[in-house]
Design brief:
The complex is a heterodimer. By secondary structure, chain A is mainly beta. Chain A has a single domain (about 1-479), classed as Beta Barrel (Porin). Chain A contains five helices and 26 strands. Chain A has a 16-stranded antiparallel barrel with strand order 3-5-6-7-10-14-15-16-17-18-19-21-22-24-25-26. A three-stranded mixed sheet of chain A has the order 13-23-20, with no helix packed on it. In chain A, a hairpin with a 2-residue loop joins β18 (about 345-365) and β19 (about 370-380). The longest helix of chain A is centred in the N-terminal third of the chain and has 20 residues, at about 1-20. Chain A is globular, with a radius of gyration of 23 Å. By secondary structure, chain B is mainly alpha-helical. A two-stranded antiparallel sheet of chain B has the order 1-2. Chain B is elongated. The model of chain B is unreliable at about 1-5 and about 20-45 (pLDDT under 50). Classes of the chains: A mainly beta, B mainly alpha. At the A-B interface, α2, α3, β7, α5 and β8 of A face α1, α7, α8, α9 and β2 of B.
Chain lengths: ~475, ~400
């Protein structure tokens, strides 16, 4: 087993060396547009640093220095071709090699990078910008709604996010608020007194998480894929292994469904509200006096929709140390279906509301970046027949630490703890520890080796725990 | 049939809504860039930063409390200013009542506190003959031909007494005078340079860990990019140039058709007034800007024509001045001492790769390279050659350095 793993690693290394040696001659869109190094906005790609967060918050503009003539100025100065090229970026990410182990079996897989994303993004004016992500997955796992089970196939379409961002400071000015122009952007308030950047409206297909202390957008530890088993000739598939994701943002409940008609299960590790695959919605955020960030919005989720509010307080900023805390409140109206009380394999008629609340914190000191989130979920509207067999509360904790050991080497470790809810005869808690090392030969290319360990007892029939160890070798390449 | 509205429809509706709001919203402009309208009865004044040629005119700290200066100022004020600004400094002098732009009141405590010494010096020197005051109909005459520099400081010290302010009128006593710059700094600079400007922001720590370059400590006296001689602080113009151009670096991703990628962003799209406000805040972090007696800058003589002879002489100078020890014989930054070089923070520092002028931190124009040679980079092993090279020799060396990107032959 270990010999196979060793040879697999060597082979993967050779492949990496081959990839490594090829000239790329390209950098991502924003770096091109602003002629900036990746590291100016990223601790190391894709994780945003504070400057990158502000760049995002202000609608992909260098704070206080947005181009007054926007897209028209770029077209005039740079020409159409360069403007178009500078608006595009490509990201290739995923595993090159996977090794999974359980007491019963060992799986070793070689696979090409499993996700290719094309980004198109630009500021049109100082107060208006857009961001669109197209995604191609050659081997995507999706729930086949017609057949009623998970299947694999290639997928192309809009990716996680496709939205526009508009600064509404001018609208508030029109309503009588004092405004000032700051680097081309309209800002509310007066210098030396109360100031407010924004409010920014972000609408479209969004995952409004970038401002949270635990930002799940642009994660260093990529989510793994769902594994399922489908026997030849059978028309059903069975979930074999759930993905490893930040459990704090997981749906956390066993036995619930996304909708009634298609009976698609809401898997316990499905990311909801934050870290989703993107959902239609609108998000308003604003920064007050450069220390308080407020955010409200609504998002569609399954058959229902979410309303949410988030506040972040940047408490400390001195001597290479920054510290902020966030609080999240989310009410999901009819976002999942309870199981049918007579047949738990099928969705019932009752839609459940979900209360989600939680806290997160982020501390950065020199090369160290520590962030964590503790999120509670509680279901409301449960049919009375299910009350004795369904646990309505659940909790998730995710803590991650990244340390920049060297300019080109970043190590990360993440701890995930899930106190699951849902059907009592199915639910199991989960605990995972992940360690990862990323090597950046250039700022826009990372090779990573990652290992995740199931810290709980192996449980063959539960996909949350049906593994002991998973090793990945992968690539994350932006250009 | 699905009854839910597709997210496409929702997204299109939201785009339409936002565009409607955005296009329909009237543009709001403020005459006062600080966002404050002062009462005209107290004297109309417009808050604009002093232009570059006056930006370095800071009052010697002694003048604010020197009784002789204040007495001298009173004497001048009474004979030249009071007729419009009033004996009491309230902007209600007899000659000012009929003017289209009311003379400023020096009793407007909040308004005066926001003004900086270089602003007052500029206003006294140029009067209303410069924008934006000219278009507003200011009738104030320029006094630079009549009053000496010392007399202008004296008037300023006296008019300052009308508000009851005590002590020097400097930003660290009146933070409101740099409030706008401070707000810009908090938004755009604090990540790298830190809240106190000590170069210890959280972003800076990850840009190039444990090696140079690190974000500048703006409270120290070491500034790399200057037009002033070695060991001196930069001019306001130098700081504006750095903010406008950003700083390029030798690291980074692969590039395609770029002029060079920056480790510090270019703020060239920030309106010039706001760049000046930002620089005024940056200067306020360091009292030495108020304590320097005079400012000398390195003179850059007109650029001569490039000839093969000049490049050849430059090549010889490159060897004689031991440039190749750090930059290497082909200029690739791989000289024999390169691995041991450290900056003033004792961090390893890499000599610039001279074959890639698009990444020169201080600019790639021949004049920029000349300035770099004659000023050096404070805090790094790159010395100033002002005492070692004659201007003609410096140009020869500049031409050779710039020829290295073509293999040192052109």
């Amino acid at each position: 087993m270990f010999r196979r793993a060793f040879f697999a690693t060597v082979l993967a290394g050779m492949l990496l060396a081959y990839v490594d040696a090829r000239p790329v001659d390209a950098i991502p869109a924003f770096a091109r547009q602003y002629d900036m190094q990746c590291n100016a906005c990223h601790t190391r790609p894709p994780r945003l640093n504070r400057f990158g967060e502000q760049f995002h918050m202000m609608g992909f503009q260098i704070p206080s220095a947005s181009r007054p003539d926007g897209l028209v100025g770029s077209l005039k100065d740079d020409g159409t071709l360069k403007t178009v090229i500078d608006s595009l970026a490509l990201r290739v990410s995923g595993g090159l090699f996977e090794y999974s182990e359980s007491p019963r079996e060992t799986e070793v897989k070689f696979e090409p990078p499993d996700e290719v994303e094309l980004f198109v993004s630009r500021a049109i004016t100082p107060n208006f910008s857009f961001f669109v992500e197209f995604e191609y997955e050659p081997n995507a796992t999706e729930f086949d709604r017609d057949r009623g089970y998970f299947n694999r196939g290639h997928k192309f379409g809009l990716g996680k996010e496709a939205f526009f961002m508009a600064n509404l400071g001018g609208v508030l000015g029109a309503l009588g608020a004092p405004t000032m122009e700051m680097g081309g952007q309209t800002m509310v308030g007066r210098h030396g007194g109360f100031t407010m950047h924004g409010p920014m409206l972000m609408a479209g297909k969004i995952d409004a998480n970038t401002n949270f202390s635990y930002a799940t957008n642009r994660q260093l530890i990529l989510d793994t894929e769902l594994e399922f088993e489908k026997e030849e000739g059978e028309n059903q598939s069975k979930v074999h292994r759930l993905p490893i994701v930040p459990y704090a943002f997981a749906s956390k409940f066993f036995g619930v469904f996304k909708d009634r008609r298609e009976h698609e299960p809401q898997l316990v590790t499905d990311q909801v509200m934050y870290n989703t695959t993107g959902a239609p919605g609108a998000d308003f955020h604003a920064m007050f006096n450069d220390v308080i960030l407020g955010e409200v919005g609504f998002l569609r989720e399954n058959e229902g929709f979410n309303t949410y509010g988030m506040v972040r307080y940047d408490i400390l900023d001195r001597k290479e140390l920054t510290f902020n805390v966030s609080a999240l409140f989310n009410w999901g109206f009819g976002v999942v279906r309870a199981p049918d009380s007579a047949d738990h394999e099928r969705a019932g008629g009752q839609r459940l509301d979900r209360l989600r609340y939680g806290v997160a914190a982020n501390a950065r000191w020199k090369g160290l970046d520590v962030y964590g989130a503790l999120i509670w979920d509680r279901m409301y509207g449960l049919p009375s027949e299910l009350r004795g067999e369904f646990d309505r509360t659940a909790m998730g904790l995710t803590v991650q630490a990244d340390y920049l050991v060297h300019e080109n080497v970043l190590v990360s470790s993440r701890f995930d703890q899930l106190w699951a809810g849902g059907l009592k005869d199915e639910k199991l808690d989960g605990t995972v520890l992940t360690a990862q090392i990323r090597y950046y030969p250039w700022q826009n290319i990372a090779f990573f080796v990652r290992d995740s360990v199931n810290l709980r007892k192996f449980h063959e029939d539960n996909p949350l725990r049906s593994w002991r160890n998973q090793l990945f070798v992968g690539i994350d390449w932006d250009f | 049939m699905r009854t839910t509205v597709s997210w496409w429809s929702a997204a299109i509706a939201m785009v339409a809504l936002a565009l409607g709001i955005w296009i329909g919203a009237p543009t709001v402009t403020c005459a006062d860039p600080n966002g404050e309208e002062h009462d005209d009865d107290k004297g109309g004044h417009v808050h604009v930063p002093a232009p570059l040629e006056y930006a370095d005119s800071h009052a010697p700290l002694r003048i604010w409390t020197d009784p002789k200066m204040i007495a001298r100022g009173k004497e001048i004020y009474t004979t030249t200013c009071a007729v419009c600004h009033g004996d009491a400094g309230d902007g209600k002098g007899p000659a000012g009542l009929a003017l289209p732009l009311k003379p400023s009141s020096f009793r407007d405590r909040a308004g005066v506190a926001e003004m900086r010494d270089n602003y007052w010096f500029w206003r006294i020197s140029e009067g209303g003959q410069v924008e934006p005051f000219k278009s507003k109909g200011s009738a104030m005459p320029p006094w630079k031909g009549t009053l000496s520099v010392e007399d202008r400081w004296a008037v300023m010290a006296y008019q300052h007494t009308f508000t009851g302010h005590q002590g020097p009128h400097v930003p660290w006593e009146h933070p409101e005078s740099v409030a706008m710059g401070h707000d810009i700094y908090r938004m755009s600079c604090v990540g790298c340079h830190g809240a106190q400007g000590k170069g210890d922001g959280s972003v800076g720590a990850t840009l190039s860990p444990r090696r140079a370059p690190q974000p500048r400590d703006l409270t120290s006296s070491l500034f790399k990019f200057r037009s002033t001689p070695s060991g001196q602080l930069p001019t306001t113009g130098d700081l504006v140039r750095t903010i406008s151009e950003g700083i390029r670096s030798s690291g980074g991703p692969f590039t395609i058709g770029l002029s060079g990628y920056r480790i510090m962003p270019s703020f060239r799209h920030m309106p010039e007034e706001q760049r000046l406000e930002l620089v005024e805040y940056v200067k306020s972090l360091n009292k030495a800007f108020w304590e320097r007696a005079e400012i000398r800058t390195v003179e850059i003589p007109p650029r001569p024509r490039v000839t093969p002879e000049r490049v050849a002489r430059g090549k010889q100078l490159y060897a004689d001045a031991e440039c190749l020890t750090c930059h290497g014989d082909r200029g690739r930054g791989d000289g024999k001492s390169a691995p041991e070089l450290k900056d003033d923070l004792q961090l390893p520092i890499q000599p610039t790769d001279l074959t890639r002028p698009q990444r020169f931190k201080n600019g790639r124009r021949p004049e920029d390279v000349y300035r770099t040679l004659m000023t050096g980079f404070a805090g790094t092993p790159m010395p100033s050659y002002a005492d070692a090279l004659e201007p003609e020799q410096a140009w020869d060396l500049v031409f050779y350095v710039l020829s290295l990107s073509q293999g040192g032959t052109k």
